[in-house]
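Task: complex structure prediction.
Instruction: return structure tokens for all chains below.
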Amino acid sequence: MRQLCFPRSFSLRQLLAAGWLLLVVGAATWAPSAALAPDLAHISQPPGGTEHWLGTDPQGLDVWGALLQGARTLVLVSVPASLLTLLLGTILGSAAGFLRNSGWQVSWRSLSTLLLTALAALVLGPRLVPASAWLPGVAAGSWILLGRLRLGRRRVAVPLDALVLGLMSLLESVPLLILVLAAAAVQRPSLGGLVVLLSLTCWTTPARLMRAATLQVSAQPYLEAARAAGIPTGRLLVRHIWPNTRHVLLVRFPLTIALLIGLETTLSFLGVGLPPEVSSWGQLLAAVRFAPTAWWLVLWPGIMLVSTILSLHIMAQNQANDVTPTAGILSKINETIID
Amino acid sequence: MRVLLRHTARALVAVWLTLSALFLLSRSVTDQAAFIQSTLTSNTRLDAQTNQAALTRQLLHRYGLDVPLFYVSWQTPTGWRWHGCRNQYHYWLGQLLAGDLGLSYRQGTPVRELLREALHYTLPLTLLATVGSVALALGLAVSLSYRPRFRRLMLLALHGVQSFPLFLVAVGLLLLLANPDALAWFPAFGLGLEQESGGWWQSTADLLYHLALPVLSLVIVSLPGLVVQLDGAIRQELALAYVATARSKGASRRRTLWRHVLRNALLPTLAQLTDLLPNLVAGSVVVEVLFALPGMGRLLAEAAATQDYPVLLGAVGLVAVVRLAAQWLTDVAYQLTDPRIRL
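Output:
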């Protein structure tokens, strides 16, 4: 019994991984915020110089400064984007898994009120005009009118599961990198735009996993008992389903960050998505195309990138071992290989 | 058969929706005046012409930009307006169904020609990478299953490889093996098709030599996922009774693995194989940009960087079709590996 009281022991590699991630976050915090000034007197300098101890790129930018600023871009893009991704995936996935195709029933009255109001809004057009003041009137009028008629009481089921699955297969009809590339070409390059774009395209994997977990939990006898006891839906979700599905998110969080880091650096390597004045590790690596023998442009950002992604994978493995010691976490890491 | 048809219909609808969304988005953000201006100024003879208004009209007509975008549009004073079938979307969809992908904004040539030329280079690259990674993954996974010590080491290494993004692997290979300062075994870029001296055999060998590094980087990146998945499936199958039966009836370890275990272990891996080919096409974006191969991926990346929307749409559509084809192949492969599954 004593064993259970021991604090959880960390292995060396977990400590190293956590330490590295802290270092990256620290670098992101303390990176100089002013744009880097090129030093045109020392371009393509190998490491070891007195001024630029990690060398400079063909435009004369200091590699060390670019690395620090790249760390900031990395954190600013990947952490908010993965939070948004997981939020979107959790909401859609667990709603689809819990409500299925018949769990969410709407009365004809509310459904047709909604449709009528939407139609009226569409006719009036996308901008606010004085006639828009009629919209609440239309809504209230149709609500009351339909309430008078008898048929408004009947309920129809919204096929939420089918809708979410359809949306997923729509997003997955093209590989992620190509979808993001095409969408990034349409929008103007910016940091916020990239975050929104990445989270709108990457939510399918967490949603799929959450849906599967919710389905699995919903089929358990204890949930049937809870339903039979008359526990309301909201509490059922919060107290009975969420505690048994959140481990998916805990494992998924580091993996999503790793995936997004890979995508972000690949995009800036290709010169798409971020404005050119924002430093990124991918951009630094792209400079090697013009200076094929400059190994220092590959080595430093490469080491940092690989250590970051590896640390995130180790963290995910750690989480997975905590919650389900026997689950095949390895297969979960393997979902997205190419990006 | 019904399942095949349903998959196809669903995939076609998905492709149509994706392409339509991309088309409408890209056309609505295109700044027509700026686009025409850049086209005019890029050509000095056109720029010197005095009658710029007529030229602009002709150019707009040439690229099909002189009619409204969609069936309906919103105008501030009058509200919604119905344009009938004379709109860009209708024309575009009609052309698409007829197999015409329009003209490239930047180069002025038909997109279909550009895509065909690009496929000429991308097809060998992706097919070689697919065949290479599948064959290597099968061989590796099977050989791992009866070498426990080697297996642990190999899996550890594969997990390490998984944290390398594709572009990093490609850059690393380029620096190591195609660097005049280190080992210059392979060419750093291009396809070397300029000298048409040798015969058929010579040119094929030349192509292979130039494709070696790109294919190698694609294989390295796609290998870990495949091997880990396949290895897990084989481990599960090895514990089952039929393996012991086969062994006790005198089948060699090799035969048991290749003929009995692998057939069953392949089933869960097939789903992953569906995504392999499209993922490799996506990967070829990075590889072709880095190694300067004039293929699909580079076309796509350049179109994205220069906002050449017709090319972008054509390339995305083509990739979606590749994914559809891969799905068909997987459905057929399910039949071949497991006759119990009837579609």
